């Protein structure tokens, strides 16, 4: 990994506040700690794809902050689940590459838990809390195409079966993460078996390329690539643009293989797609 100065990356992040439609700089004061609160719906009907998306966006926001030299703390408000359901939800989120929150609160949320948060990420359909300060981030709906089979609908699913519904046995759950990341957070996501298969195939192709590039001498990340990635992530969490940029870097003849490896590995700190999973596997000695 090339040395990348955190100081050189430390810029203010801008997120569009749903209430005003205008970008707001976060953190709102000059400090190096970003607090994020992810709000999941109250009730006991289980969790759906939209709820997973909310937690995922909170995770990506925290990762982006850290890439830009900021520390972050993540809070989560959610129903008071039975122990078995809570563990199942944790397993599902872990499989999706989501870092655990620093603090979890149950509904009704403690008034002090998220009151001072810089950013509030709300799952689709979550009741508004306009009195709470900080930037409000409302997410687009997640659902299947009309009549699509094999893909769960927008209704909430019991926690123990949530991951199995979107990533059956033998399917990489991170393909679900990649599919979600390919859409701006405020836009709807239509989940189809075709879209999931495309995400799975792309993920496999990228991992194999990263493994191949890892065998070449390391080279620095191109300055234009690093600058563009930094800028689009800081500008309303432009993760889809980062994915597009990686697809372009992959084919650029002017970027050495070692630089491509460093680029993909570095930006995977935000994407969380385990892109280096296959590194070293292709030359394992036979037993």
Question: How would you characterize the overall build of this protein?
Answer:
With 287 residues, the chain is of the alpha/beta class. The chain has a domain at 6-166. The protein has 9 helices and 9 strands. It has helices at 6-9, 49-67, 83-95, 162-166, 174-181, 193-213, 223-234, 239-249, 257-271; strands spanning 13-17, 22-26, 33-39, 71-78, 103-106, 119-122, 135-138, 142-144, 189-191. The strands form 3 sheets. The chain has a 5-stranded parallel sheet, covered by helices on one side. α2 (49-67) links the parallel β3 and β4 (71-78). α5 crosses α6. The relative contact order is 0.15. The model is unreliable at 1-10 (pLDDT under 50).
Topology diagram in text:
Layout: H1 6-9, E1 13-17, E2 22-26, E3 33-39, H2 49-67, E4 71-78, H3 83-95, E5 103-106, E6 119-122, E7 135-138, E8 142-144, H4 162-166, H5 174-181, E9 189-191, H6 193-213, H7 223-234, H8 239-249, H9 257-271
Parallel strand pairs: 3-4, 3-6, 4-5, 6-7, 8-9
Antiparallel strand pairs: 1-2
Helix pairs in contact: 5-6, 6-9, 7-8, 8-9
What descriptors fit this protein?
38% helix; alpha/beta; single chain; 9 helices; five-stranded parallel β-sheet; 287 residues; 9 strands; two-stranded antiparallel ribbon; disordered N terminus
């Amino acid at each position: 990994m090339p040395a990348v100065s955190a100081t050189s990356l430390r810029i203010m992040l801008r997120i569009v506040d749903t209430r005003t439609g205008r970008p707001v700089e976060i953190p709102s004061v000059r400090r190096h700690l970003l607090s994020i609160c992810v709000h999941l719906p109250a009730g006991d009907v289980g969790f759906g794809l939209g709820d997973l998306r909310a937690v995922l966006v909170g995770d990506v926001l925290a990762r982006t902050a850290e890439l830009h030299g900021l520390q972050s703390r993540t809070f989560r408000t959610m129903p008071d689940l039975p122990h078995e359901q809570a563990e199942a939800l944790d397993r599902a989120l872990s499989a999706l590459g989501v870092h655990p929150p620093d603090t979890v609160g149950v509904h009704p949320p403690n008034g002090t838990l998220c009151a001072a948060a810089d950013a509030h990420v709300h799952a689709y359909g979550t009741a508004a809390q306009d009195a709470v300060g900080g930037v409000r981030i409302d997410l687009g709906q997640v659902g299947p195409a009309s009549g699509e089979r094999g893909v769960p609908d927008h209704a909430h699913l019991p926690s123990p079966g949530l991951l199995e519904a979107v990533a059956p046995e033998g399917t990489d759950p991170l393909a679900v993460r990649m599919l979600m990341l390919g859409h701006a957070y405020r836009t709807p996501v239509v989940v189809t078996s075709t879209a999931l298969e495309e995400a799975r195939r792309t993920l496999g192709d990228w991992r194999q390329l990263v493994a191949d590039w890892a065998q070449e001498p390391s080279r620095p990340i191109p300055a234009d690539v690093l600058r563009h990635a930094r800028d689009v992530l800081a500008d309303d969490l432009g993760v889809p643009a980062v994915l597009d940029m990686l697809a372009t870097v992959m084919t650029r003849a002017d970027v050495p293989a070692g630089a491509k490896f460093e680029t993909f590995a570095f930006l995977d700190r935000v994407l969380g797609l385990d892109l280096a999973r296959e590194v070293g596997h292709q030359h394992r000695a036979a037993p």
